[in-house]
């Protein structure tokens, strides 16, 4: 898959372009490449979509700032042309300039869906491996109970906008070109509140603290994201709410590190156990115990891998491995008797060392 072109390059703009420069550049690109002017030309349609996506980012102050700082990666997760119905986004922006080609005035698509919310939740390694439920506390607008989110006083209804006739858009002609813009009376809603709800003052939403229970599946890792449908901001006039996105942050663990599906830990053993071999018991974060067989002659820093004892896959299809890094502990204080035994051990090893070298030569 080819990488996206720089948005400034797409519209032929310098990075210090003014909002007016951006609008003019997009208008020219859109007129030139619109599919209705280039029927059957897939490349023109692709250029039209590319220009509209660039305009959608560069005309938004916040998105442009993130794009200038981080490039395309800075737009991930904040909502953009890639979210939802892409071509509908393109057509809406184009209609704002020109009223559309060939199709006449586009009617509004209805009340807008609510915005998404993004939060972060820190989990311990144990909770991430076993899975858990957490309450996420949000302070956000919620649909007004008294007016059911309409903004109109209970017992009354919103009225069609007299300026746009309920279309949410008004059009004006300049020469041979018809320009369409958002209705200034109803702000594109297509309807107005004559008698506002006393509780929400006509906004259709009130701010409240609410708790959302989020299920974190066993095996989830830091940097992953969960989507909780319908728990974002409320939609306008009773439209569907947005979604809640929860970014997982994994807290550091004293004994274990996680590398994908693998768990890494260090096992300190004595010099004697390293030379003779031994069995080490590892207590895993999920309260299970693993017996790790340490072969005789293991070297400091060697890694013993135990398959199937790492983190579980989120889909339940198996587990990673437990990676045990061997640390040989050297005693700091030896008794005279222990020192004598080590000297005798050293002499004994030295006697057999030449024979061992000759055997391998």
UniProtKB/TrEMBL annotation:
Zn(2+) 1 binds at residues 144, 147, 197, 200. A zinc finger (CR-type) spans 131-209. Keywords: Chaperone, Cytoplasm, DNA replication, Metal-binding, Repeat, Stress response, Zinc, Zinc-finger. It comes from the Bacteria. Binds 2 Zn(2+) ions per monomer. Residues 131-209 form the CR-type domain. CXXCXGXG motif repeats lie at residues 144-151, 161-168, 183-190, 197-204. Zn(2+) 2 binds at residues 161, 164, 183, 186. One of its GO terms (cellular component) is cytoplasm. Coiled coil: none annotated. PANTHER family: CHAPERONE PROTEIN DNAJ A6, CHLOROPLASTIC (PTHR43096:SF10), DNAJ HOMOLOG 1, MITOCHONDRIAL-RELATED (PTHR43096). InterPro entries: DnaJ, DnaJ_C, DnaJ_domain, DnaJ_domain_CS, HSP40/DnaJ_pept-bd, HSP_DnaJ_Cys-rich_dom, HSP_DnaJ_Cys-rich_dom_sf, J_dom_sf. It comes from Sorangium cellulosum (strain So ce56). Pfam families: DnaJ, DnaJ_C, DnaJ_CXXCXGXG. Participates actively in the response to hyperosmotic and heat shock by preventing the aggregation of stress-denatured proteins and by disaggregating proteins, also in an autonomous, DnaK-independent fashion. Unfolded proteins bind initially to DnaJ; upon interaction with the DnaJ-bound protein, DnaK hydrolyzes its bound ATP, resulting in the formation of a stable complex. GrpE releases ADP from DnaK; ATP binding to DnaK triggers the release of the substrate protein, thus completing the reaction cycle. SMART domains: DnaJ. One of its GO terms (molecular function) is unfolded protein binding. PROSITE patterns: DNAJ_1, DNAJ_2, ZF_CR. One of its GO terms (biological process) is protein refolding. This is Chaperone protein DnaJ. It is found in: Cytoplasm. Belongs to the DnaJ family. Homodimer.
């Amino acid at each position: 898959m080819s990488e996206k072109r720089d948005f400034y390059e797409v519209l032929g703009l310098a990075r210090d372009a003014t909002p007016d420069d951006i609008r003019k550049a997009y208008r020219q690109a859109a007129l030139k490449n619109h599919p209705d002017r280039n029927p059957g030309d897939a490349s023109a349609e692709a250029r039209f979509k590319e220009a509209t996506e660039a305009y959608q980012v560069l005309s938004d102050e916040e998105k442009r700032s993130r794009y200038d700082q981080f490039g395309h990666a800075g737009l991930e997760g904040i909502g953009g042309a890639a979210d939802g119905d892409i071509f509908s986004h393109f057509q809406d922006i184009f209609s704002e300039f020109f009223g559309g080609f060939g199709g006449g005035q586009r009617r509004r698509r209805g009340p807008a869906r609510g915005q998404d919310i993004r939060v972060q939740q820190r989990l311990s390694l144990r909770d991430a491996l076993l899975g858990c439920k957490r309450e996420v506390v949000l302070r956000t607008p919620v649909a007004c109970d008294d007016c059911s989110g309409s903004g109109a006083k209970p017992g009354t209804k919103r009225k069609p906008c007299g300026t746009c006739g309920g279309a949410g858009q008004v059009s004006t002609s300049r020469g041979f070109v018809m320009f369409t813009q958002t209705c200034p009376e109803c702000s594109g809603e297509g309807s107005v509140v004559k008698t506002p709800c006393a509780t929400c003052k006509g906004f259709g939403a009130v701010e409240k603290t609410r708790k959302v229970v989020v299920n974190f599946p066993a095996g989830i890792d830091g940097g992953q994201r969960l989507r909780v449908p319908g728990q974002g901001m409320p939609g306008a006039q009773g439209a569907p709410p947005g979604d809640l996105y929860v970014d997982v942050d994994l807290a550091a663990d004293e004994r274990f590190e996680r590398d994908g599906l693998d768990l890494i830990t260090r096992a300190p053993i004595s010099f004697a156990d390293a030379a003779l071999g031994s069995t080490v018991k590892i207590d895993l974060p999920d309260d299970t115990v693993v017996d790790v067989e340490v072969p005789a002659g293991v070297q400091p820093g060697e890694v013993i891998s135990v398959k199937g004892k790492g983190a579980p896959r989120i889909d339940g299809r198996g587990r990673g491995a437990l990676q045990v890094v061997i640390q040989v502990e050297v005693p700091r204080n030896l008794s005279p008797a222990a020192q004598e035994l080590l000297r005798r051990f050293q002499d004994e090893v030295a006697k057999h060392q030449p024979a061992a070298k000759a055997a391998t030569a």
